[in-house]
Every structure is written in structure tokens, then in C-alpha cells.
Amino acid sequence: MKSSLWKWNTRTVVTIGIGGALYGATSWIGIPIAPDTQLRPAIALLAIFGALFGPIVGFIAGFIGHVINDLITSGTVWWGWALGSGITAAFMGLIYLAKDFNAQEGQMKKNHVAWFVVYGIVGIFVSLAFSGYFDILVMGEPNDKIAIQVISAGLANLAVFLILGLPAVLAYVKRNRNNSNLSVDR
């Protein structure tokens, strides 16, 4: 049985810490594609932590990880983009709420896969729209620069989600499905 979204224990806090640290530590790895924008494989971690632990854990881990990355790489936190990483993971984590979905027990049907893809795509573009508007309205960034960043980051994040994130979650579910017939002898 999967844990409740609202049941917080040591495991939940440790999961958020590990997720945030992993995302923060790996987000600096990327290929530049536009001004201040990279294709970052770490986006796959948002899909993994969201799907396996839910939207709340995903949001917090994504937000903390982005803050860590900003502090490590530039010393300045771009709050709109940090919130955007959290929003992306939260949307991807909506699959956790689906009836009969349980990655820990290897339960993921074809309709879950379809909804996971939809949540991921919508989450990526909602979060980038939020981040872009935040930068324009709060940070005073120029519209044309933000448009280029949002479009290029959206396409890059979509590719990473579909090529790395989705297969990683599917592999995890498959692994757990194959091991679900094991029993413990006492």
C-alpha cells in the first residue's frame, strides 16, 4: 500500500532531502541551448521523485534542488525557475494519486502511462509559463529573452522527460512487478 500524501515521517523527510540534493547536484550538468538555458538530464529526477513519492514530495524536492543548483552555479537564486522545477515535479507526481497506481508494488496500467505523459507535458509547460511570467513581471527580464528561454527549455525538458524520465519510471515499475511474487520465509 502506498503512503498517504499527508503522512510525514522520517522516510518522507529523507526522501525530500535526497531528491533535492540529487537534483541540485546533477542540475549543473547540461548542454547550453539558449541564453541561460540548458538541456539538463536532471529533469528526469523530477519525474522519478514525483511518480514514486507524490506531488508534494516532488514539489519540495524539485524546489530545494533548484535552489541548491542556483546557489552552487551562480550564487543567485532565480525564484521563479526554482518554483517552476517544483511545479513540474508536482504535476508529474499527480500520477501517484491515480487509482490502482503503485510503483512500489509494480502496478501501472496503460492508462496510467498515458496520464503520466499528459501530466508531465502539461507540468513542463505550466511551470515554464509561470517561470517566464515571473521573470518578466518580478525580475524585469526582457520578453524576447524569456520567450526564447521558455520555448527552448520546454522542448529540452519534454525530450528529457520522454527519453529518460518516463522509461526510468516504467523500468522501476516493471522491476517491482517482476519481484512482487516473492515471499519471505520465516
Automatic annotation (TrEMBL):
InterPro entries assigned to the protein according to its UniProt record, in alphabetical order: ECF_substrate-spec-like
GO CC entries: membrane
Swiss-Prot/TrEMBL keywords: Membrane, Transmembrane, Transmembrane helix
The keyword Coiled coil is assigned to this record: no
TM annotation in the entry: 12-31, 43-65, 77-97, 113-134, 146-173
PANTHER family, per the entry: UPF0397 PROTEIN BC_2624-RELATED, UPF0397 PROTEIN SPR0429
Official protein name in the record: ECF-type riboflavin transporter substrate-binding protein
Source species: Paenibacillus mellifer
